[in-house]
Fold:
Amino acid sequence: MRDDRVDARREATRLTEPVEEAANLARKLGLDPYPVNYWIVDHDEMNELIAYGGFQERYPHWRWGMAYDRQRKQDQFGMGKAFEIVNNDNPAHAFLQESNSLADQKAVITHVEAHADFFANNEWFGLFGDGEGDDRSDLDAAAMLERHGETIRGYVEDPDIDRDEVERFIDAVLCLEDTIDQHRAFARADERRESDAPPDLRERLDDLDVSEDVRRQAFDEEWLDDLAESERAAARLEEPHADVLAFLREHGRQFDEETGKAEAFEPWQKEVLDILRTEAYYFAGQKMTKVLNEGWASFWESLMMGDENFAGDDEFVTYADHMARVLGSPGLNPYKLGMELWEYVENVTNRREVADHLLRVEGVSWRNFHDVIDFEAVADLLAPDPEIASITPATLADLDPSDPRVDADALERARAGDVDVERYPWKVLTTAGLAERHFSLCRPQNRGFLRRIRRSELERLARYMFDDAKYDTVADAVAAVDYTVGWERMRELRESHNDVTFIDAFLSEEFVTENDYFTYEYSETTGDFRVASTDPEDVKKKLLLQFTNFGKPTVAVYDGNFGNRNELLLGHQYNGIDLDVDQAKQVLERSYDLWGRPVNLMTVVTEYDEHELEIARRRNREPTPTEVGKRIRYDGEGFETHELDPELEERIAAADIDYDTKPDEWLS
Structure:
């Protein structure tokens, strides 16, 4: 980025204090982000960065130009404005558009600090490497992607290599970039459980004492080489190979039209495939946690900008408009869904903490809880201490340095006039103090949340409660409430979850009902879309299907020697959603470029009988489809579609997925 622009230097100077104070506030709130380097860029540079996926240097390819043109048009015609972009790196790099208002810049900076915390602490991001995730100090993704760009640029500019051939090869790999095993650490992703391959046929022929003349007449050496390779590959396919790119890197070839045979990859092809596969694993963490990550950043941004007044009085309306546009975007909005889920987790955890204490009041049980508890009185008792809730220079004398909610060192500096308490009152508080100051059940919109607790949950809380008369009064019980449990629980969850596991764990009936979620489907009867269900389990299933495997079909390698003809057999793990067959055929064409021999794809398609469709229309109901297994084959010239053997069809039926599985369990 250019750093010689006067406007950029002026903007950098203006943002120096907000950047420093946002980082300080994030740490006060209990976040632990990567350090962040901020860059000031102009409009075109921002569009270029977005096209490049948040990095300044990438490999040469037409996809970046297409993405840049799309982003430029979206911005030009008011279809969406990019305020910032931040990448997963240590240190992280965030880019701010110099034309943003100060309110927008502050919103972006607080949002970025929360992203940097998520990058640094979420275990799914830690899978890029050795999978341990404890030490990510040597990540340096920007340098890695720059090296990748230079390597591929060298091949593109090499006079001995056809530039179009490089681009076609990249196109082929990119068609399969998400066919990786994203649940395994990158360093071990291509390790597979293997059975022993049978001995090389040449060794068996030696044991049979077959003469050289017979061997030459009956067995071609190239055929023997191919057989040995295919048998070794088959030994690795005791289970479907989820990392298709790794399998192609090891066993793939290219078809040579001059010789009419599949030839080994050139060294540059293997290196390009390695590079693109590495980048697919690097970006996998972001794709797997889009809702979780954006919701996390939006939650803390809102708290810092609104609740903690990081937006000044003259900036708040601008910020409110900014946030409304972000959360009000149409469609399945990851910012809105993610933020609502995090707020729900905070509220549920805090509610459980308060209810647990109230159940320990003498005379209160899970049976009479709703009858004897005065919820309005409890809400008043939960309100933060006035000394914590409103801090001004005049109230500093009322704060006790020994109070665990007070930062004694900061309080001393504030009393000496070295801290601007008017602008940054949070500086004299600890995380515990800020947790009380922003306790979620005290917010107006959440005052009825405690009352909504179900008797079944109260019964679970009370089941193993042996000190159920610990407090004499409700006031004594509320005084013992730990205000930090909600944030502690959120930090714990952000370490281990991805979108699928998080939605499965916390998208409850209460959440679906309160936030008015529903499912809709295409009606074969009417030819339009209709609301299908408001049942929480249906909503959850629909969302889980959208986020599993980045929302794309799950395809794995089932056989590298299908039909004993060195053909590749891929399988679509069918989960009730049909493939787009036209797109699938295009991917098969690209897969052929990486295999060099015929490729096959197993899938299941739903078919509708015309008579059944007509009856369904008359009776205003949905028709019953028939599921049929198909195998699509491409040999480099044309497609064939075959009925799928029942045994193979059974293998591609997706089993129930344990969405609660955590990274450590995936790696075990």
Summary: The first strand starts at residue 36 and ends at 41. The radius of gyration is 30 Å. The first helix runs from residue 6 to 28. Confidence is low (pLDDT under 50) at residues 657-668.
